[in-house]
Design a protein that fits this description.
By secondary structure, this protein is of the alpha/beta class. The protein folds into two domains: 4-51 and 349-393, Urease, subunit C, domain 1 (Roll); 75-344, TIM Barrel (Alpha-Beta Barrel). It has helices spanning 78-90, 96-109, 128-138, 162-169, 189-203, 215-231, 245-248, 251-264, 281-287, 310-320, 326-334, 338-344, 367-373; strands at residues 4-11, 17-22, 25-30, 41-43, 48-50, 53-58, 112-120, 145-151, 176-180, 206-211, 238-242, 267-270, 291-293, 359-362, 379-382, 385-389, 392-393. Helix 2 (96-109) packs across helix 3 (128-138). The two termini are 22 Å apart. The relative contact order is 0.17. Bound molecules: zinc ion.
Length: 399
């Protein structure tokens, strides 16, 4: 929690103002502010001040960031890709702690001040990946918020003991129970979902399920998720990541499902995949479904693309959605900021008095132009503390 006065900025591309942060919170916004003696002062040089970006779905333990270029030679089939990853990670020269720290610093440098990360748990990995990521975060927790998801990437029902480890992770810094393709990976949709919803119910945890299964199968499984959310009273605490079935399912069934998601406040996260239909995000948002964009896989054994920059991801979404008006472009950027914060239930996100004193400065004319040009982030502030400058991480643990 720090104090900081930033002068001469344009909050959300509005009128020139100063922003005073005291005790880690925004205390005042307006022209000609003065700060208590001893408060650090920074000249914003006319930059646009943005509420920070939010990264609601990434994999900090999978990242190969910082290693030499890793050519993707992905074997055919999901099972083969999973096994390929385990084999490659077995021999990596850098620890989870090292790789996760690199990606977190990159995310902060690009303007994200909160991250939700899925972490692989299995009887092979045990909780080693959780411990590695938490060790990295320990050094930089003043720079970025972090929420971890217990993720059974290699299967849960088919890996006896995995579910026990996932539940145990809830006592070691993990707060969300994950799941993955209950039909394809485990071959037991109801058993998979009963298990993870049971853990969440017992431990008061949230849920975030990878659902890549498309069309009728995906919608069927989404219905099972809805049933369990309603039965256990978990409205507002369940997220479905990817949800391709909302992009390629039968229109009448998709429409009915969107109504149900809104009623149960089940969130939808999309990484805007390259070759696959993705959920109709604006339609979801307009219907009242919590929804947000995310990076997901970045430069790992699955995917050579990505840079941890949510502004880039918002632009990609705008491009693929053929958004062109300024209002549309601003709405695309909010998919990586306010909507992500709402979906994760973050308190105090925004540029208003009383909000967390976190913000991003970017040079530019307005938010629409910033989304299209994606300029280097001039300054990133977390709770009044400067944590990145000129696109480089400068916060605690900087290297
Ligand atoms: Zn993922």
């Amino acid at each position: 929690m720090s104090d900081l006065l930033i002068t001469n900025v344009r909050p959300e591309d509005g009128a020139p103002s100063d922003i005073l942060i005291t005790g880690g919170r925004i205390a005042a916004i307006g022209p000609g502010l003065t700060a208590p003696p001893g408060t650090p002062v920074r000249d914003g040089a006319g930059a646009i001040a943005l509420a920070p970006f939010v990264e609601p779905h990434v994999h900090l333990d999978k990242i190969l960031w910082g290693l030499p270029w890793h050519p993707i030679n992905v074997p055919a089939g999901l099972r083969a890709m999973i096994d390929n990853e385990v084999e490659i990670r077995r021999n990596l020269p850098y620890s989870v702690e090292d790789r996760a720290g690199r990606l977190m610093r990159q995310c902060v440098a690009m303007g994200s001040t909160h991250i939700r990360s899925h972490i692989d748990i299995s009887t092979f990995y045990k909780l080693d990946n959780v411990h590695g990521v938490l060790a990295a975060w320990e050094q930089m927790k003043d720079a970025v918020g972090l929420e971890l998801v217990a993720f059974p990437q290699t299967g849960m029902m088919i890996d006896p003991g995995c579910a026990d480890l996932m539940e145990a992770a809830l006592d070691e810094g993990v707060s969300v129970i994950g799941g993955i393709d209950p039909g394809t990976i485990d071959g037991d949709p109801k058993g998979h979902l009963d298990s993870i919803f049971g853990m969440a119910d017992r431990k008061g945890a949230k849920i975030d399920i990878h659902l890549h299964e498309s069309g009728e199968l995906g919608l069927y499984e989404m219905g099972l998720i809805c049933d369990r959310t309603a039965a256990l009273g978990l409205q507002g605490r369940v997220v479905i990541s990817h949800a391709f079935c909302l992009g390629d399912g039968p229109p009448d069934k998709v429409a009915a499902m969107i109504d149900r998601l809104a009623e149960l406040q089940i969130g939808i996260i999309s990484a805007v995949p390259g070759e696959i239909a993705f959920p109709p995000m604006f339609r979801l948002a307009n219907r009242g479904v919590p929804c947000a964009l995310a990076s997901d896989s970045i430069r790992d054994t699955w995917n050579p693309h990505g840079n941890g920059d949510m502004l880039d991801r918002c632009w990609l979404f705008a491009f693929r959605s053929w958004c062109r008006t300024d209002a549309e472009l601003r709405a695309c950027m909010d998919m990586g900021r306010a909507r992500g914060a709402d979906l994760l239930g973050l308190q105090g996100h925004g540029l208003a008095v009383g909000c967390e004193g976190s913000l991003v400065l970017v040079p530019g004319e307005n938010r629409a132009q910033v989304l299209v040009d994606r300029p280097t982030r001039a300054l990133v502030v977390k709770s009044g503390r400067i944590v990145a400058e000129a696109g480089r991480y400068t916060g605690p643990g900087a290297v």
